[in-house]
Amino acid sequence: MKTFYSFTAILGLSFFISSFNTLENSNFSHKKTSNHTTVFNDTDLANAEKANDFFKRYADLKKYKSDVMSLYRTRTLGTIWFDEDEINEFGSVLYEKAKKTNDLVFPYQNEIDKLFDDSLENNPSKTDADMLLSSMYVLYTKKSNTDKKKLSYNDMLKDFLNYSTIEESSATANLDAKVEYDQYYKLEDVLKKYKKLDRSHKWKPIVPAESPYKELRPDAVSSTIAQVRNRLYLLGDLKQDSKSDVYDRELMDAVMKYKVRNGFKPNYILAEEHIKEMNIPLSEKMETLKLNMERCRAIASQIAASDEYVLVNVPSYEMVYVKNGKVQLNSPVFVGAPLTKTTIFNGEIDRIVFSPYWTVPQSIVQNELRSKIASDPNYLAEKNMEMVNGQVRQKPGPDNSLGLVKFMFPNSDDIYMHDTPSKTLFDFEKRTFSHGCINVKMAKELAVAMLKDYPEWTQAKIDKAMEGKVESSFKLSKKVPIYITYFTSLVNENGEIGFFQDVYEKDKELTGESAIAAQ
């Protein structure tokens, strides 16, 4: 099971990562011929023969032929909307913008839609796809251009193919550029890399040299080591593949990098579970990326409207507190067991309770405590518990199951966030221990951070309130949104992808539904 690594990636303020530099540096050079300015070679998209063939097959676009072809003049690159074999970010932005433009009717919208649906096969060729997008660009520009200046389509295209277009799009989209849209595009970028890796046929299953498998440690010599080395090279954790079968210093660093970004316990041991994770097919990894891109879409507008919030991600067992667009704190958590799952929902924290009582749920009393109380008359006193109005509750104190502070957000499932005296549980990779509530390792630090705007709550006052003697409750004048999420893949601030186990099998449910629907 995996712990969370740098979940703050989902809160990144930058919109694009360095891979987009290739777009910025693309050189659309200008050349001239003796008769006209259109310059093509044998591999270029827009020569006259290909253009004529395209407009014959897409006859409803023929009236735009001159305008479309003007976009390819002076361009020595064969395409406008592609980077290698993938539609680039500008193509994606054009597609989204065109869909939202009122009264824009594109004659071959179904063909365009196919380009952005990875589940479909037999899509238009790259040549047709680029010219279809260029045709859509012309129609989009005709509808959306309100500039009184009569700029040529080519000049307007130069303005479109820059970062401001993408930033403008992200600012107005349902995905917030500062938060989820950034994560969405980072996941999309990883998806493109995985697709390219899949097409290369370099991804081969790791076949352990010994059966049953034996753990590998530094200085070990094995053919398994050479296979792991190649895998980490393909994944980017290693800069080069020396093909050595010795578990050396170089591989140790790569293994550590791999483990940390994927949430494994940070050590150099290569156990069987790590080999199994490395052997998950690329097709499954890509499906996971797509699912989490959609999760970004689902939550983006809500987070975009929040200048302060707490976000808990169940699969990575991590909590992050954000204020004014900046991460103030992140902390490990443990969550509900598979039989008592933590509910995925949004709420609002309205109270902080210091040195709380714990009123034991009746289900726990019936299933776990009744027999113990019956067999041991001193059980309640020994556990610092008491019976009040027919209910069992644990008194405040350092051993209280809720620790020394809890954070309340009203909900029908009676879930809340709280401290815990069981700090050693945070050392586990799989942290599904609770009855549904969220146990926070750095609960006191969270309380301090959330109370910074309340001058009366000095550090000394907070320390006194958390002595575990008397319960005290403080109602927040401004409620703080809390989002309990379920992301099984995330990109950290270093641009590194992390995959986390599907602890509640929600990915499995979704992919299962998709498979059934596809039949």
Largest sheet composition: 8 strands, mixed, barrel
How many alpha or pi helices? Answer: 18
Q: How is the CATH topology of the largest domain named? A: L,D-transpeptidase catalytic domain-like
Rg on CA atoms, Å: 28 Å
Fraction in beta strands = 15-25%
The chain-level structural class is: alpha+beta
Mean pLDDT: 83
Q: What is the correct CATH architecture of the largest domain?
A: Beta Barrel
Q: Which geometry do the CA atoms define?
A: globular
* Helical coverage, percent range: 25-40%
Question: CATH top level of the largest domain?
Answer: Mainly Beta
* Arrangement of strands in the largest sheet: 3-4-5-13-11-10-6-14
Whole-number total of structural domains: 4
The beta-strand count equals 16
User: Low-confidence spans: pLDDT under 50, at least 5 residues?
Assistant: 1-46, 170-181, 513-519
